[in-house]
Amino acid sequence: MENQERKKRIFSGIQPSGELTLGSYMGAIKNWVALQDEYECFYCIVDMHAITVRQNPAELRRRALEQLAQYLACGLDPEKCVLFIQSHAPQHAELGWILGCYTQFGELSRMTQFKQKAQQHQENITAGLFTYPVLMTADILLYQSDLVPVGEDQRQHVELCRDIAQRFNGVYGPTFTLPEAFIPRTEQGARVMSLGNPENKMSKSDPDGCVYLMDKPEDIRRKFKRAVTDSETAVRYDKENKPGVSNLLTIYCAVTGKTMAEAEAEFAGQGYGVFKPAVGEAVIELLRPIREEAGRLMGDKAYLEGIYREGARRAQLVAGKTLSKVQRKVGFIAR
Ligand code: TRP
């Protein structure tokens, strides 16, 4: 009943484990901004997920705050959506513990991201890294989320979340809304690839292949000049044979709103020497107001503090309700 009366809920989050990139903007945040009018949205800075691999404390703190400033600068509006920091709502950890008791070791062992990260961090394969999808499940279920906008790489985690929710509902009766992954269409802009290695996704851990939201114009200009293309000269979309040029075209279209045909026509007969800087300039103009606004906001710590405090308050209101219900169902004495 309750579900039919309210706006549909959305939950998503990004880890403050590195700087936000053009890929985070195109693939996630831009989409989040578009959803905030139609849905009740909770957008989180998932610092508890970030510590599943070792972080420098001062940097983690700085990046979490910068991420909030950048969310705002990208157009997320605290009047329309709830912006908060995961560790500020203790219900995430509490529900995470409970749900871990309804999750099989075997299920977590099958998570591809765990297997990959365990490979990358062989010296530090923690229980937190292993149970990471359970915490993510708690994030989503606490808000009775209907839709979870994520990249393709998170689909398996959202599927696991559904399995856990269904299992819990099966034992205790309807408790959690079953969420669905909401994966942006894989056309323009959804997936921004590395500038240096266009077969791979643009990753924050690859400084040269990646454009950070806070990059200065001269850095962006340099990165696009160096972007990998191919030995032809034609500016033509062909993902198989021309991954570099195709990625640049995708970025150009996403930034300017032009269609692929329009972009190809615009650069017909012009070499990469004209094309690459033009894409760079378009990105510079897109990011300029975001960088300036985020910079300004970082100078106003009191304002940012007000935003994350209010976000935590609103998040806890919803999360607290779900958690109490769960605690009662599993047999805890009410506090
Ligand atoms: N695991 C996600 C990622 O790395 C981040 C995340 C944590 C998340 N909790 C979430 C995404 C809940 C969506 C919903 O991208």
Strand order of the largest sheet: 1-2-3
Cα-atom radius of gyration: 21 Å
What's the count of strands? 5
Mean of pLDDT:
95
- Could you give the distance between the termini? 27 Å
The low-confidence parts are none
Number of helices: 14
Beta-strand content estimate: 5-15%
Protein architecture, described:
With 335 residues, the chain is mainly α. Helix content is 55%, strand content 7%. The protein is built from 14 helices and five strands. It has helices spanning 2-5, 22-35, 47-50, 57-73, 91-100, 105-109, 112-120, 127-142, 155-172, 217-225, 243-256, 260-266, 272-298, 301-330, and strands spanning 9-14, 40-45, 81-85, 147-149, 180-182. A three-stranded parallel β-sheet has the order 1-2-3. The longest helix has 30 residues, at 301-330. The protein is globular, with a radius of gyration of 21 Å. The structure holds tryptophan (TRP). Tryptophan binds at residues 11-13, 15, 46, 49, 136, 139-140, 148, 150, 154.
Write a brief caption for the model:
The chain has 335 residues and is mostly helical. It has 14 helices and 5 strands.
